[in-house]
Batch of 2 targets.
Target 1
Amino acid sequence: MPAYKAPVEDVLFLLNDVFHIERHNNVAGFGEATPDVVEAILVEAGKFCSEILVPLNRQGDLQGCTRHADGRVTTPDGFKAAYDQMVEGGWIGISCPTEFGGQGLPATMTTVINEFLASSNLAFSMYSGLVQGAVAAIITHGSDAQKKKFVPKMVEGVWAGTMNLTEPHCGTDLGLLRTKAVKQADGSYKISGTKIFISGGEQDLTENIIHLVLARIEGAPAGTKGISLFIVPKVMVNDDGTLGDRNGVVCGSIEHKMGIHGNATCVMNYDNATGYLIGEENRGLAAMFTMMNEARLAVGVQGLAMSEVTYQNAVTYTKERLQGRALTGPKFPDKPADPIIVHPDVRRTLLSIRAVNEAGRALVLWTSLFGDIAHRSQDEKEKQHADDMMGLLTPVVKGVLTDLGFESAVNAQQMFGGHGYISETGMEQYVRDARIPMIYEGANGIQALDLVGRKLPKDGGRAAMAFFAEVQGFVNAHKADDAMKPYVEPLNVSLGHLQQATMWFMQNAMKDPDNAGAGATDYMHLFGLVALGYMWGRIVVAVNEKLAAGDASGAGGGNVLDAQALKNKLIVARFFAEKMLPETAAQLARISAGAGSVMEMGMEGF
Amino acid sequence: MPAYKAPVEDVLFLLNDVFHIERHNNVAGFGEATPDVVEAILVEAGKFCSEILVPLNRQGDLQGCTRHADGRVTTPDGFKAAYDQMVEGGWIGISCPTEFGGQGLPATMTTVINEFLASSNLAFSMYSGLVQGAVAAIITHGSDAQKKKFVPKMVEGVWAGTMNLTEPHCGTDLGLLRTKAVKQADGSYKISGTKIFISGGEQDLTENIIHLVLARIEGAPAGTKGISLFIVPKVMVNDDGTLGDRNGVVCGSIEHKMGIHGNATCVMNYDNATGYLIGEENRGLAAMFTMMNEARLAVGVQGLAMSEVTYQNAVTYTKERLQGRALTGPKFPDKPADPIIVHPDVRRTLLSIRAVNEAGRALVLWTSLFGDIAHRSQDEKEKQHADDMMGLLTPVVKGVLTDLGFESAVNAQQMFGGHGYISETGMEQYVRDARIPMIYEGANGIQALDLVGRKLPKDGGRAAMAFFAEVQGFVNAHKADDAMKPYVEPLNVSLGHLQQATMWFMQNAMKDPDNAGAGATDYMHLFGLVALGYMWGRIVVAVNEKLAAGDASGAGGGNVLDAQALKNKLIVARFFAEKMLPETAAQLARISAGAGSVMEMGMEGF
């Protein structure tokens, strides 16, 4: 039976000692996020996750969701009670504006809690995760009346939200979408069409579901320029806020999937359903795009979450499983065999997961803090820089951490040998669940194209240049320090590879864009390794500062890393530098080989 | 609904034009394997696979196997009829000696057919696959009476076979095994104990099952030196060959697994079951080891098989799925969108699978031919060389091709976007099924240790030196040829990396064996890339010879590659050299970094 302990100490270390979030006290919500408040919230969240959500995870997988003949959907046993508890605890609106009943804390707090939730029960966590995106969409683009009518109940958690983009013939290429909207005399619209892959499209957890739906208004232009965004409530909401009749939207079926069985993935049939336009006509895709960074960041966090929980369980098993002896002679001669964690190949596997988890968490928090600053800062220059960085880092977080998260889950499962293939162990569920973040919210190949084709050249490369300058500045500041050399020198080499790859694109993608397309995925992962290497560098600096100050005991409520835990981070950082950063040389070589051999063969030759 | 077409043309090209199997006509069985016989058999096998086994694959996954209260196990609907058809066709004994009713053809023929079977229906293919291992064990180590009593019915296919090694507390470390054997007055033994993870331990396909069981004879030494191998029939066999009473072995339960649901993975309870010693007392592990190369090769073939079938289905989908436009402008302006195969990232993904499939198949056949020569040649020198090479290549084939096979399945699934996560598409089943070959028959970390710790140093490094010399010889023979440079130069670089890594182990593993352990997995994959690169080199030479001879029409029954198909191989070969071989630099860097950061952290720090 898998277990999970939320990495509260590591998060506090990152927030307080690496990123010094107290520096942002001038930004709305950060003043309230004092170290003791943050600690108390995270401890409580971790407890809820370990005690309530973890035990529901396997049951959710086994039982899945059930659609009844009338279109109702029942979630697995225990999900409703757990969701009620989450609503009661006010967890869903923790970062939402206070004017709508939220607690107004930084979105970064939600990012952290989303990691804990996803590690505990990915399928469950998606129900509340999608509410946050829908709330953000309505707050950013909706009218005051729409906000007042829909947002408070969503922030409270008694109403859920969904995103309806995909149609059977139309996924990445939203320009093909056919769902239509017909304007009514009262200014509302009648929405008709079929949407697929709608996570939480129907469920029994909340009183109402606020669907956000992309549709084409009658007479609108073809392609992406004719798409509008609508609010379509499952149950109509009266002007006094009470619930009215059922709207014309129903769950037609739920998908049989590889994993996340506890989340209902619905085919949603809209049949003259009443919808309310959000923002301007034909500007729906733009409205969707402004939410996309947050949604993609949240999916990247799911990759991290799966990596963390599978690491924890693999560590437990490799310490317990006795099999064979250490290569250097028995370590536990009194036992029939040594625990398999004595083997270098097992440790290598565990460390490669751990090295992703710690730096990945740092990257997620760093990106999320940029998001908070971009949305909440009063300083225009700071705001723009933060927006640049968040935009640049988001596809990296989404694409790289979900690829690595899946890889971690597979590698952690491998540590269990044959037992990892057996369902009761729980590891194979993690692998099946960890597969979806690589696909949804823009498959990872799309993330790579977003990075290379949009984020890199945007504003004359301003964001990328700022990133390179920051990492290069870090390298320069520390390269003369012998204690930093094992981390900084390999980072400098990899940064050089990244810059060369960027240059290669600049020189070769103009004349043939396929040169960018063929190298995009490698570039995204190269960027990811440099970003993770930089995060490790920042962690090492913080560790050394704390050790030098004899400040291992930290402040606050006891969730602190002791000196040994801090020193262990130096080992993992070195492992990352020695064993994972060398990959960037191969990535650069592949990128520089260009599109020739990729594009040459005729389609019929495949 | 997934489909599959056996790659008969490619196999014939490899056997006839790359490996020139007619050269081995002096080896038993090869004289009968004339090109037309081979072609006829493979065409027939491919037909059986596509028409009978492919349609049963999803049903097998959905339905799985059922254990009844009395211990009987029912396989999925259709399996029994298909198995009967396989028995009737004489497929199981195709490479078995004619004296036991087989057809005496090279084992390489079985290797090829095993690929087709596994691509079509991995779970099904395991039932017959395990018979081959059991037959080999009895033929090699059994007495004449045992052979006469058990082998003919197994070769015919009406009796199956299993391998019983694993116990709950004992997997890799067989020295811990507890199943006991008590000698009886009549020379037989009473076997008692519990074995787990027994593939096909019980089923309804065959009249009898011949279990091969590792057990410890009462009073035998502890550890691996006290293990013996026994034949334990499910139903006792009378001296006249008729079936007698049920023996004391029963299926206690079947496992719930991530995949291969159509294969019954059984807990087998032995309770004073009658068993017959094979070979000498306490020499069971040695007997097991002689079969291990064949069994591991067969599992490596499963990895290749999953890579091939997922490639074929991804190609079909990416040609049909219309979404977005090519980066260089619309390729099908009359359609609403281009098929996604126009995108470089999609092609890169498909080619990285294809590059593994073609060279992987060559590596499998090359290794299998060494196996045939090692077992059947009359020439002692040739025999020894072949045995060396088969021993060296087997962990590479098993470890590398199953890792890559799973990676291919995941990448192929990714091409389907969200649809790949839906069960009906069939891709997620392939991913779940493709996961097991990485684990069973020695988890891949064990393969890496076998390569680095046993096969590399064996006989003073004779096998490795022969391999290096052969690849170096190939490079030297072709490096001056401009047409060969794109393939040979990168291969030469990677071969250099492999030799440097080997040297590094020689210099550093002696003083600290953890240095070998920490680099073993990287070394195995580095070795694999060089071996695959060498195979591509051999393929390119054969392609150029055929093109130069204008011999694209080939000989035989029409299953030939045309000139375009041959030229396409040059493109895939170049893709491999440009995009996949560069990885060896990173592998060498990781290996040379040694065990320091891997071993430093205390166990409690994980």
Target 2
Amino acid sequence: MSPQPARRNERSRRAILAAALELLAESGYADLTIEAIASRAGVGKPTIYRWWRGKGAIILDAVVETFPDVVELPDTGDLRADLRAVIRATVAEFADPTLSATTRALTIETLADDDLAGQVRDRLLRPQLDAVRARLESARAAGRVRPDAPLEQVVELLFGPIYHRWLLRTGPLTEPYADALVDLVMAAIEPAGG
Amino acid sequence: MSPQPARRNERSRRAILAAALELLAESGYADLTIEAIASRAGVGKPTIYRWWRGKGAIILDAVVETFPDVVELPDTGDLRADLRAVIRATVAEFADPTLSATTRALTIETLADDDLAGQVRDRLLRPQLDAVRARLESARAAGRVRPDAPLEQVVELLFGPIYHRWLLRTGPLTEPYADALVDLVMAAIEPAGG
């Protein structure tokens, strides 16, 4: 392919992803249509269907590209402080109306479509979960985490409650909430007498 | 209304709820239609729309009526044993394909419809969350739980990770998994030196 069409394709692709996120924030996932995305992006519907099989796949690509390096977990040597940083940031994402709308859309697709569920997990969430797990491993090596703590489950103990509260709207998603969650998880994994 | 039509209405209502659960288990939520439910239940579509505004509301009523007294939490005096019983049962529900399909359907509706979300939370989940919270309170009164443990968040610490694992399919939903989860939460809430 000559440089010219490649550049045009890339421009269209970015316009489509941006249009999808804009429309999602404006009017929600239920009302999001391929037609509206095409119109906002200034492309034809066939262009979209050439690259994606549905709106869920578009939103996933848009989110992955918009937040590519979101998972730099700090390692200050203070596990509680490092977990507070990442859990505060995660809680803030769920509390943000725009980001919450994209998470809502992807969760609906995750529930309805096994293939997309695997992609959401592996491309979007797995890097973050693995970064937290790696930080827990380094803390365990430093003697700050019980040797027998099941780290995969500890990661879920951090993120699962946020998801639960967001989904069921059972309480506020605030910084004090985030810190209390980290304190609970720290109490669960600290060595006895630590 | 004379007894005769009342009985006929009740028979139709039950047939509709049963048909909805059957069809959901057979072919999934995406393919579930009001038309199919009406046909299976032997009623007209207008009958259904007179009583419910959509398939999500039907599934919610069906689940609430099918599992009415699901939340008898034991109080044996042994908090760990009592939590194991309820968390093993919850994990088994999420692992069961039929129950998982109804939870999937209700979760999709919860994400798309604020009003139904409130009903799912208050009619279906709140009784269970409150029963666990009451058990934690009695344990705290007996000195088995740290006085400063935030019990609302402890309840989410128990259920959130199950939801997370089920949604993202990141690991098996088994009895050893359930027990390890309870052990983590117990470590988080037990008094120092307890």
